[in-house]
Amino acid sequence: MNASDPINPEHLDRVLSAVDEVKHKLPETALRALAQEVIERVAQQRPAPAAPAPASEIEALCTALLSEDRQAAAEYMLAAEARGLSHETLCLSYLAVAAQHLGTMWDADRVSFLQVTVAVGRIYALMRSLRRAMPPPALNSGRMATLVSVPGDDHTLGVAMAAELLRAKGWDVHLLVGLGHNRLLDELTEAQPRLLGVSMSGKRSMLSLTRLLVALKISMPATRVLVCGNVDPEDIDLIGVSGADGVAVGFEAAETELARLMALPSV
């Protein structure tokens, strides 16, 4: 692996602040679903490392993640980076293991729902910052995109029409509709599209959309994600914090955003 850029403390603080704000915008049932999603998806990133992180380090990281001091976890990661740990190691051997440990603590009622919500939000923010600093993968320069409907959304005519319009304009489009959350994630993780358009039909899709965006950002950090369709302006900030790289209403705006995202360098 190539050398990674240093963690940007200012970017890390911005992401932590933004993720903290999500707690005030979602009901408890939605927060529970997202907390479970982060724990499961981050834990799945865990390989079988040759030198696992010491248990004492994982305990210290969990303590920092659960701390009332929002900066504690960020300071832990910056100190670990200063000790020479790579971003890949911090993601896969530290944060992924900590997520699994927090899930075990939650199941055993050793931590409260509120504590877990705070901790997994911080894990998500830290992973986003670490992935941002990792070297970009090789890019495919073709005009290719995958379009999907939000899991559970039966209104798929709009995204099917958008796929046909894009094909008529020379785009290579792969369309996935009518799939459940896990099946859709499996399909996308296998394909690893560079550009993904997620169509939502309205506010009733917000929980499923937010859960999908969180899972995508953890499992497929290099993929650019555009949310399009019937988007409430009040939800745009939450959609962005959840992991979308762009939001568009209407076909022309969606095509423009897809072209813009395709032209961006990887982060």
Short structural summary:
The protein has 267 residues and is an alpha/beta fold. The protein is built from eleven helices and five strands, in the order H-H-H-H-H-H-E-H-E-H-E-H-E-H-E-H. The protein has two domains: 125 residues, Methyltransferase, Methionine Synthase (B12-binding Domains), Chain A, domain 1 (Orthogonal Bundle); 120 residues, Rossmann fold (3-Layer(aba) Sandwich).
Could you characterize what this model shows?
This protein is an alpha/beta fold and about 270 residues long. The chain has helices spanning about 10-20, 30-45, 55-65, 70-80, 85-105, 115-135, 155-170, 180-190, 205-220, 235-240, 250-265, and strands at about 145-150, 170-175, 195-200, 225-230, 245-250. Strands 2-1-3-4-5 form a 5-stranded parallel β-sheet, sandwiched between helices. The chain folds into 2 domains: about 10-135, Methyltransferase, Methionine Synthase (B12-binding Domains), Chain A, domain 1 (Orthogonal Bundle); about 145-265, Rossmann fold (3-Layer(aba) Sandwich). It is globular, with a radius of gyration of 18 Å. The longest helix has 21 residues, at about 85-105. The two termini are about 15 Å apart. It has 11 helices and 5 strands; from the N terminus they run H-H-H-H-H-H-E-H-E-H-E-H-E-H-E-H.
